[in-house]
Every structure is written in structure tokens, then in C-alpha cells.
Write a structure and sequence with these properties.
0% strand, 186 residues
Amino acid sequence: MTLLFKTFKIASIGGVCYILGRFFIHKAGLDYTTASDWLFRVLMVVVVSFSILRFKASKLGYLSFRDGFSIGGFTTIFLAFYIAFGTWFFVNYINPLYTQGVEKSYRKMQYKSMMEQYVYKNWNKKDTITQGAIDTVQHGLDMYIEKTKFYFTLKGQVFINGIYSLIWGVVISLTVSLMTRKVKEE
């Protein structure tokens, strides 16, 4: 079996786990919590590390940094594709209102943060908040959302999850390859 096929097979298993994990998170009503972030993180670490360690085991415990990083890189590329596809599938078919929910959730979080900052800086910690302060913060939030509206689209979600997967995979590949490398002594 070729190296590419082995990494593709491992990444495929990870991709299926990602899609199933997102489905179960949705069914549990945890779409807008950190549950999907933790699914992503754990899946990336486990799948990329497993592919490198499995290759090392097949080479009788010897692994060069280059081999480890290559294995991790190939797994990362395949897994990033699956995560991007899984995100597209999830947003299109499982939860078509997901991007709207992400924007609503983000607005709620940012509103609280912006209001605290605005009241602290401009109102000198007063106990009452005027309608003017609420309107000012809401307008600032609307402007910020308008500038970052790509994030709240299907394409944005797919792109961001794909890029994050690549970045995480490269970092994990570097780390695991450095920590597990063992070369034959001559």
C-alpha cells in the first residue's frame, strides 16, 4: 500500500468522525458552544499523531523528521479537505440556519464585551446605561459585523475551517515529528 493511500485512509476515518461528531453536537443542541471547537482540536491531534506514530511503528520504531513531517503533512491535507467538506455538508444539509446562529451568537458575545468597554471608558463606571450608549455600541457592532460578514457565510465557514485545519495540522506534524523522531545510529 502506498504512503498516500495509507494517509488518505486514516484521514478518511477522521473525516467521517468529524461529520458524525458535528451531527451529534447538533442533535445535543450544542452548535453554538465550544463543543465543535473541541471536536476539531481533538480530532486533528489524534488523527495526525496517529498517522505519524503508525508509520513509525511500521519502520520498527525509526522515524526521521522528514518522514514524520511528510506523513503528517499528507494526512493534514486530506483531513483539511474532509473538514472543509464536512463543514459544507453540515451547514447545507444538517443545519441550514447555522451561519445565522453563528452571527447571532457572535453579536451577543461582542455586544456584552463592547458595552462593558464603552461604559468603562466613556461613562466612568456609572450604574445606568442610556439609550444613547446602547445605540452607539449597537452601531459599532453593526459596522464590525459588516466588515467581517464573510465569516458568517457558507463559503466563509468552509474556508476558515479548511485553513485552520491546515495550520493546526502543520503545527501538530512539526511537534509530533520532532518529539518522536528516532534515527538509526551508524
